[in-house]
Write a structure and sequence with these properties.
This protein is 34% helix and 19% strand. The protein has 551 residues and is of the alpha/beta class. The strands form four sheets. A six-stranded antiparallel barrel has the order 12-13-17-16-15-18. Strands 2-1-3-4-5 form a five-stranded parallel sheet. Strand 4 (113-118), helix 4 and strand 5 (144-148) form a beta-alpha-beta unit. The protein is globular, with a radius of gyration of 23 Å.
């Protein structure tokens, strides 16, 4: 006999809208970012109230924690027990958030769901929302999404009204074309198929240091989907990386730093370990670099991903210097423990930041395509952090800020290693400090891409863009509007507007790689598209070519 289950969930009135806010896992980040979230919610609520609706915040400000975020999966589950499962729900994001804090509740929520972010670079709210969108897409949860600078523009207001009255607010994505409708040249098609067959035949190993970093459900590729591409995970432990770093002697680590400085990298150091980048922090990072390469060699990895923030942050300085260096072909040599071999000599050891496996698979395909076409193979993910119109008068085009949280390969920078700088990671993220690997990305033609999971299958979106040079004052304005310690790329997408990108992109990250010319970049894109298709990935081309012509 089934006993009736009494619900403790209240039933909202017709014109009431529930609101929640997912936050960081780190108390320091939540406390520092709370004022921005509070201000964003006030402006958003005013826009909703102007439509004749009342906002009911589903969880209160925590006077002990000193913020109003859901900061754990357990807290999220408990809050969802207390909300109306059939009522409309908004997830408002002005900061980076851990999607697993709210994902459990969202999987069973029956009312309309809307993710919203303020168009601001101050904290990574847009990045957090895109991560949540990608996670919901992977999970198969239906949702709508919106973004705005101040929630007063006509586009936002019209779409908000549409969602409030219908439960949906779709956006146009007519910039997207399935690869099946694209005439792929025979040379690109053939090479892509050859590379795909080679990968499936010979297999590749993706070294993963502790899966599931930073609550990014969208960053985990189910094993069966990954295996179908010929790539297999080697699940590694961060404790092994930590231990191995303690086995590296100071002399070896000093050689790494000396190499970096001889190539022109500048470290901005100071005496206070709590707030400055110190020599001891850099030494520790150099040891971690050696340790990572040796562990990758131990397991025969073709690429690796270090968890980056959680776990190791309490034991070691940040892994930024390690990550960007690994992604660069010109990097300090690392010898085997017995000193008899140089490991991965003359090769990239591609690293995917934050253990984003979708970026890892993308980086592996990118490396193989670009090496086969004799194009630059250094590639990296960036956060799709923010964008703004250029205020220097250099261009009338919309310029994105692609900004990864700590490091990029110096091959991407103006002046290479000589243009690389190391600053201490912000203490709110990294109590143990550590050097970032910062630089300004050089002008040139790039291919951008993203692999994601939807409908139980792997998908890939690709597009073309260019990196432009902006005056130093404009670069500084953009750095100060985001995180100035991190590397920056000024990107202009071809045939993809700001709103089209936000409407279609299913991740917080975007993969980028340079080519030597627009023609070469087109060839690289089409070859990678063909390779991905041959591996069973569903491929879309986004936007146009450099000349504005359709694919």
């Amino acid at each position: 006999m089934k006993l009736p289950i009494k619900s403790t969930q209240p039933k909202l009135k017709k014109h009431q809208i529930q609101l929640i806010a997912s936050g960081d896992l780190r108390p320091s980040a939540n406390q520092v970012c709370w004022p921005a979230q509070k201000a964003m919610e006030a402006t958003l609520c005013a826009a909703i109230q102007a439509e004749g609706y009342e906002v009911v915040r589903a969880h209160a400000y925590d006077t002990v924690a000193k913020h109003g975020f859901l900061d754990s999966q357990r807290k999220g589950i408990e809050v969802f027990k207390q909300i109306d499962p059939n009522a409309p729900l908004i997830i408002a994001e002005a900061v980076w958030q851990y999607s697993h804090h709210v994902l459990a509740g969202l999987t069973t929520h029956r009312g309309p769901i809307l993710t919203v972010a303020n168009w601001s670079g101050t904290w990574p709210g847009l990045v957090g929302m895109l991560n949540l969108n990608g996670s919901l897409t992977k999970q198969g949860v239906k949702y709508s999404t919106l973004w705005s600078e101040d929630f007063t523009d006509g586009y936002f207001k019209a779409k908000l009204h549409q969602w409030l009255t219908t439960g949906k607010c779709p956006h146009k994505t007519d910039h997207v074309k399935p690869l099946a409708k694209v005439n792929v040249p025979g040379t690109a098609h053939k090479l892509g198929e050859v590379l795909a067959a080679q990968l499936r035949r010979d297999k590749a190993i993706m070294g993963v240091f502790d899966e599931g970093c930073m609550g990014m459900f969208n960053a985990i590729i189910p094993d069966d989907l990954l295996h179908a591409t010929g790539v297999f995970k080697e699940r590694l432990s961060q404790s092994t990386l930590y231990h191995e770093s303690t086995q590296v002697n100071d002399a070896e680590a000093r050689e790494i730093r000396a190499w970096l400085e001889q190539r022109g990298m500048t470290f901005h150091t100071g005496p206070n370990d709590a707030t400055d980048l110190t020599d001891a922090q850099i030494l520790s990072q150099c040891k971690t670099y050696i340790a990572a390469v040796r562990i990758a060699d131990d397991f025969g990895c073709d690429c690796i991903g270090i968890q980056y923030q959680q776990g190791l942050k309490d034991l070691l300085p940040a892994s930024d210097l390690v990550e960007g260096t690994l992604n660069n072909r010109e990097r300090p040599p690392v010898k085997s423990r017995d000193g008899q071999r140089v490991l991965y000599d003359g090769q990239l050891l591609t690293h995917f930041n934050e253990v984003d496996e979708s970026a890892g698979l993308d980086s592996l395909l990118t490396q193989r395509v670009h090496e086969a076409l004799k194009q630059p193979a250094e590639n990296t993910l960036h956060d799709l952090r923010w964008g703004d119109w250029d205020q220097s008068g250099t261009t009338k085009q919309y310029v994105w800020v692609f900004e990864i949280s700590g490091s990029a390969p110096p091959a991407h920078f103006i002046d290479g290693w000589a243009g690389a700088e190391g600053f201490r990671q912000p203490p709110m993220y990294f109590p143990k400090g550590g050097s970032t690997l910062r630089g300004i990305s050089k002008p040139g033609e790039i291919v951008w891409s993203r692999i994601y999971v939807a409908g139980g299958a792997l998908h890939m979106d690709l597009g073309r863009a260019k990196v432009i040079a902006l005056p130093r004052e404009e670069t500084e304005r953009r750095w100060q509007a985001t995180t100035w310690q991190w590397p920056i790329m000024h990107a202009v997408t071809y045939g993809v507007t700001r709103d089209q990108m936000m409407a279609k992109h299913k991740a917080n990250h975007v993969q980028v790689v340079y080519a030597t010319s627009a023609k070469a970049a087109d060839q690289c894109l089409l070859t990678k598209a063909a390779m991905a298709k041959a591996l069973g990935i569903r491929v879309n081309l986004c936007g146009t070519k450099e000349d504005g012509k359709a694919w």
